[in-house]
Design brief:
Layout: H1 3-11, E1 17-28, E2 38-55, E3 59-64, E4 71-74, H2 87-97, E5 105-112, H3 121-136, H4 143-158, H5 165-172, E6 177-182, E7 188-192, E8 201-209, H6 218-238, H7 262-268, H8 274-298, H9 302-318, H10 325-335, E9 340-345, E10 352-358, H11 363-377, E11 386-390, E12 392-393, E13 397-398
Parallel strand pairs: 3-5
Antiparallel strand pairs: 1-2, 1-13, 2-5, 2-6, 2-12, 3-4, 6-7, 8-10, 8-11, 9-10
């Protein structure tokens, strides 16, 4: 059942509206936004719907079609983190209330349209919820305010050291455009698909394995990148090259690899522990891939863009060292499948799904071929593995069903 139907069965009333936030993919630029790098991405036409009505007593009461536990709390007494799916709603309420007076709560039902894992479902839930809460409280947020509020819900309340890639893709994206974003200064370009570009669609291959960012090695990887940045700054200062740094040597918490130019990295990289060297190598090579990818898209060169996506996936596996056994297998299968321009695992990469840009003419062969090869290797995923064909979409907003 859809969230609207479930809402009516629970509350014996129609929802006031249905908020929608799309999921996102990031073909190139993975694992770099928290280092203030550049990314390219899309919103896709699958995501989170939320049917809702205001509750004038200030209570937030939400059910999910994807999780059993119901969320319930008052806008003026948000409990501490509970380590469940509703933490994202609690965090969003706290961050919104820090900036605006809240008068109304909300009753609602949330529905995710693709299995969770790798498409930034957490950010999509937060953004759909924020859209609804703003609606019932007559609050108008700019795109930047919406992104920052959603980001703080994850970093400051839930405790995951994400950057703003997810929120930016899900807010700023436009259908048939590639989002090219600099996460350091929030400048961005929406690059239209060239009429000369080969046709493409987005294939999502869900591995059947779910994951939680907060319990994964995600935060550890972010700390490793910050450590590399801090060390490189220290080496530059000791070597008399402090003026080469874009941001001066300072507190550890503020260290980001974007502050350290590539030539400083090349000068001192051999001093880094091997683990930090691998992480930093991914950042600098991914930065170059993003810039090359944006240019390829601008030129309508899908072949080059897809090749860069595959290279991004390879670097994430061998330099960033993410990717579960299932996702790495999917990545290898995609590389050997005709009609796949480029692909990689999506999101943190520890579990979840892979995404691919594919030629629509090969759709059926891609679905059957990838499915057969994956299930031959992981037969226990029968009934859990799934394939979803998507297209690019506009960012968050209230959307009617189609």
């Amino acid at each position: 059942m859809r969230c609207e139907e479930v809402f009516e069965s629970i509350y014996r009333n129609q929802p006031q509206s249905v908020a929608f936030c799309p999921y996102r993919i990031c073909p190139i630029g993975a694992h770099s936004d928290h280092q203030y790098g550049k990314i390219t991405g899309f919103a896709i036409d699958k995501g989170v719907h939320m049917a809702y009505r205001p509750k004038h007593n200030g209570v937030v009461e939400l059910s999910s079609l994807n999780f059993e536990k119901r969320a319930q709390f008052h806008i003026s007494q948000v409990p501490p983190r509970q380590s469940d799916w509703a933490d994202y709603l609690r965090g969003a309420t706290v961050m919104l209330a820090n900036c605006f007076p809240l008068h109304n709560g909300i009753s609602g039902v949330i529905e995710g349209t693709i299995p969770i894992g790798g498409l930034s479902s957490s950010a999509a839930v937060i953004l759909a919820f924020l859209s609804a809460m703003c609606d019932v409280n007559d609050i108008r947020l700019s795109n930047r305010e919406l992104i920052e509020t959603a980001l703080k819900a994850e970093t400051d309340y839930v405790g995951v050291s994400v950057g703003k890639l997810d929120q930016s893709c899900e807010v700023l994206s436009r259908k048939d455009h590639l989002l090219y974003l600099d996460t350091r200064d929030d400048s961005y370009e929406l690059i239209p698909s060239s009429p000369d570009m080969k046709p493409y669609e987005v294939a999502i291959f869900f591995s059947g394995v779910e994951r939680s960012l907060a319990s994964s090695k995600f935060n550890m990887r972010v700390d490793e990148l910050k450590s590399a940045a801090y060390a490189l700054k220290g080496y530059a200062v000791d070597g008399g090259f402090e003026n080469a740094l874009e941001v001066p040597y300072g507190r550890f918490v503020d260290a980001r690899l974007r502050d350290v130019p590539r030539d400083v990295f090349e000068r001192y990289k051999d001093r880094l522990p091997s683990m930090w060297l691998k992480r930093a190598t991914h950042f600098y090579t991914e930065f170059e891939r993003v810039e090359k990818g944006a240019e390829a898209w601008r030129n309508g060169d899908m072949q080059t863009y897809g090749k860069l996506v595959f290279e991004s996936g390879e670097s994430s596996i061998y330099n960033y060292e993410t990717g579960s056994e299932e996702l790495i297998a999917l990545y290898e299968i995609m590389r050997e499948t005709a009609g796949v321009y480029g692909g990689r695992f999506s999101g943190a990469g520890f579990k979840g799904c892979c995404m691919a840009l594919t030629d629509p003419a090969y759709r059926d062969k891609i679905i059957s071929g990838v499915t057969e090869r994956y299930l031959r290797r992981f037969p226990h995923m029968e009934g859990r593995f799934s394939v979803h064909i998507c297209r690019s979409a506009d960012g968050v907003g209230n959307a009617l069903r189609v």
